[in-house]
Amino acid sequence: MFFFAYNILSIFLLLPVIIYHFYRSISRGRAPAFRERFGIIPAENLKEIKNKRVIWLHAVSVGESIAARPLLKELRSRYPDHAIVISNTTETGRSISNTFPEKDLCIYFPFDFLPAVSASLGSIRPQLIIIMETEIWPNFTKVATGRGIPVMLANGRISDRSFSRYKKFDWFFRQPLKMFSSLCMQTATDMERIVEIGASKRRTAVSGNLKYDIPLHPANSDEIKSLRARYSIPENLTLLTAASTHAGEEQYLIDVYKKLALTVNNLFLIVVPRHPERASEVSSVLKESGLIFKRRTQLSPDDIFKPGEALLVDTIGEMMNLYSISDVAFVGGSFVPTGGHNLLEPASVGVATVFGPHMTNFREVSELVLHYGAGIQANTTEELFMSIQSLIMSVELRRVLGQNGLKLIRSEGGATARHMENIAAYL
Questions:
Q1: DSSP string, 41-59
Q2: Residue 297 half-sphere exposure, CB side, CA atoms within 13 Å?
Q3: Which residues contact 171 (CB under 8 A, 6 or more apart)?
Q4: Do domains 43-208 and 221-412 have the same CATH topology?
Q5: What's the order of all strands across the beta sheet hosting 238-245?
Q6: 427: three-class secondary structure by DSSP
Q7: Is 237 helix (H, G, I), strand (E, B) or coil?
Q8: What's the topology of domain 43-208?
Q9: How far apart are CA 241 and CA 329, in angstroms?
Q10: Quick count: other Cβ atoms within 10 Å of Cβ 21?
Q11: Angle at which helices 170-177 and 138-146 pack, to 10 degrees?
């Protein structure tokens, strides 16, 4: 009865969904890719996976794609004869996933419309489906399990904010959740929550957070020199990077930067909006603030930045390089109520980190960062200034926080191995 009602509803929602995706794609300057979203994958794209056993991994967007990286590397290493297909919902997620050497094919995840799901699964014919974090699509799960394809939830989590929403609609999630063959949750709290919503306790386990399995790679002096040259940044400049920022956060960081630049004569700012399509908006903020800056896409080999200037990064896929050359990093989505972003990325390269009070989506991570002394949480604009100032003024403090970040990553890893134990049962 549930699925019958859901499919009747999906017919009425199909047109609004198409209009939304069309508007979203065109407004961001990207093709809508409706063929793939309706499960139509060109035959030439399927050549790489033809006659191979397929592992299909779905990651909604950038964060989930990056979190899946340790798992993808281990899958490729342990199952070299399998083809790996990565699907994404967002355009930015697709762009990132397309750069992963482990994948054989990148596609858009189909609309959860019965014909689209059936066509997509019919073309890919996976042996196993792995869904990152918490994506629950009734038709996709039902059709896959109906065809004997195990569906596994990896790195599962349910944030405080999401849990209240899931609880209100547990009647909706209960049926598809029971169809998952295995649910690997990040923490005991996540496990309790998803069981309360409707997942089978017998099939649910605590497997840890894949994000802790980020490879450690603090850049050496030669790598830093090469990367700085790539971004036209002289070696003598102290770099403050505002990473994964959202609307409103750029102005906070610009204010801090301008105030610090009055007394620190070798300071330089890098601004990396979470969504590159906001580059024009952030560009206007930088202009109004009176800062001299250049966009990443406009840099030429002859450019050389000066103290007090800024780089606006309007590309994707360069965040880890930018963290590697930074002296201090502010991780965005945390000074506005967005829920925060991944503090483990700067920790993995040994960079001192500052973040704001809004970390509901990364509560466990932020608590660990504070426990290990790998970062500073600023709750007010004054604390933000004081925290960044203390790090800019003290090389030793930056070194201690950076080393503590590396220690955190070394100590908290192991989730990939626990996930692979689960995966081995199906492959």
A1: --GGGGGGGTTS-EEEEE-
A2: 9
A3: none
A4: yes
A5: 293-295, 310-312, 267-273, 238-245, 328-331, 352-355, 375-377
A6: coil
A7: coil
A8: Rossmann fold (3.40.50)
A9: 5
A10: 17
A11: 20
Distance CA 402, CA 417 (A): 26
Return the sign of the alpha-carbon dihedral for residues 366, 370, 375, 376. Answer: positive
List, in sequence order, every residue forming a beta bridge with 311; answer none if it has no partner: 270, 294
Distance separating alpha carbons of residues 132 and 59, to the nearest angstrom: 5
User: Tokens representing 368?
Assistant: 């660990």
pLDDT tens per residue, range 3-55: 888 888 888 888 888 888 787 777 777 777 889 999 999 989 999 899 999 99
* Strand boundaries in 109-225, DSSP class E: 128-132, 151-156, 182-185, 204-206
- CA distance readout (Å), 81 to 4, 48, 49, 69: 39, 12, 10, 18
221-412 has which fold?
Rossmann fold (3.40.50)
- Biggest alpha carbon–alpha carbon distance for the chain: 68
Q: Where are the domains of the chain?
A: 43-208, 221-412
pLDDT digits (tens, 9 = 90+) for 233-290: 999 999 999 999 999 999 999 999 999 999 999 999 999 999 999 999 999 999 999 9
SS3 content of the chain, % helix, strand, coil (to 5): 50, 15, 35
The CA-based dihedral angle spanning residues 282, 288, 289, 290, taken in that order and rounded to the nearest 10 degrees: 120
Helix (H) or strand (E) holding 329: strand 328-331
Cα separation, 375 vs 355, whole angstroms: 8
Look at residue 309 in the predicted model and tell me its pLDDT: 97
Indicate the length of the chain as a whole number: 427
Tokens of 115: 């014909």
Residue percentage of the chain with pLDDT more than 70: 100
**For the chain, give me the number of helices (H) and strands (E)?**
19, 14
SS3 224: helix
In one letter, which amino acid is 192?
E
Q: How far is CA 16 from CA 8, 13, 142, 359, in A?
A: 14, 6, 23, 32
